[in-house]
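Records of this kind hold a single protein each, on a pair of labelled lines. With that in mind, the following record should read easily:
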Amino acid sequence: MSIKPLYLIMAAAAAVVFAPQLVSRTYAGDLNKEIPAAVSDPANTGLTEVAVLAGGCFWGQQGVFAHVNGVIKVVSGYSGGGKQTANYDQVSTGTTGHAESVQITFDPRKVTFGQLLRIYFSVAHDPTEVNRQGPDEGTQYRSEIFAATPEQEATARAYIAQLDAAHIFAAPIATKIEPLKAFYPAEDYHQDYLFENPNAAYIRVNDLPKIAALKRVWPDYYREKPVLVAQK
């Protein structure tokens, strides 16, 4: 979402005027695709696990995973670059190495890492896009999995190979994988942005359809009440 902080409130207000003129559609060409489960998805007997995923604007990613059963918390932030450049103004230049990401804390007894990837590849974003998602362009919007453990990295690589071998998508999966070095939470105004601004034009066109797709394609993974960073 190429919107500077100064314009966020203006964008949300403008939605009331312009949203009816927008075509309600998703930009991810393979959204709503029911894809197979990961063949390799090792069990984790721990109480919690953390996954860091990048797939376009973190508003929509946070919105999708906040509605997944077994997810405890989802934080918008930056990963892939250094601490000194982990802020919205610098990340938006596309020169920091960071990608807009979400840090997902989940209960692996209720939802596995492989199941989160199933949602990530099928309804959360288009994994065949390179350095863009929908209207947003730049390396900060790339598709990338920041593996928190060697097991996560192995699962992700095996799953991408599985999906590519099955020709699930019209183009090869472009998702990058690298070990997680650090995750930096984004500014407060980015947290729960979708839920605070559901009528914003950007949210209505690009992100709400993803949540609707999650509910329709994966009803067993979906829960109606999302988990919020700022729990009410």
